[in-house]
Amino acid sequence: MFYSDAVRVHGDKAMAGNTENKGGQRGSRWRRAVWGTAAFILLLPLLAMQFTGEVAWGPADFAIFGAMLFAACGTYEMAARMTGNTAYRAAVGVALAASFILVWMNLAVGIIGSEDNPANLMYGGVLAVGIGGAILARFQPHGMARALAGTALAQALVAVIAGWGYTLILTGFFVALWLTSARLFQKAAREQSLAGAAP
């Protein structure tokens, strides 16, 4: 009796260890995929420069782009370490992608007119709404969903102020990304509530 219980306990520990190892391997693969994708994206302009004169990046361009990629990937990895909830991780990924594209477009060509147009600074306010809302929500999924919905509203307000003619398609694109992130955070909040209610 004692021997069979010991074997069962040892088997349970081994299974738990295998599950943890598999989770760690999955996380490691995801990290490699995220950082590998970032490295590939950073190399794309260099490759494009070999085939066309339209892309002419200098060291400063690569430094800024690389710093932005590093910040986005580092933030995602921190979020991934905080929780194993897939919906939460996906929500963070979508929000970071939207932020990255918004900042890069503003720096590269500008969204409202050219990159020198001071009206483009309003998009800094859009990001401030999202970041401020996330801090107030303490990065909890339910509050994050509200913060991203507010970010979508701020994005639409910038378009209204600037005039829809300039930014209609791009505004729709970014609003869709912010709302997708908000819905994923809502899903993460529901899953968190169900897990908390489980006996």
UniProtKB/TrEMBL annotation:
Keywords: Membrane, Transmembrane, Transmembrane helix. It comes from the Bacteria. The chain crosses the membrane at residues 33-51, 57-76, 88-109, 121-139, 151-179. This is Conserved uncharacterized protein. It comes from Stigmatella aurantiaca (strain DW4/3-1).
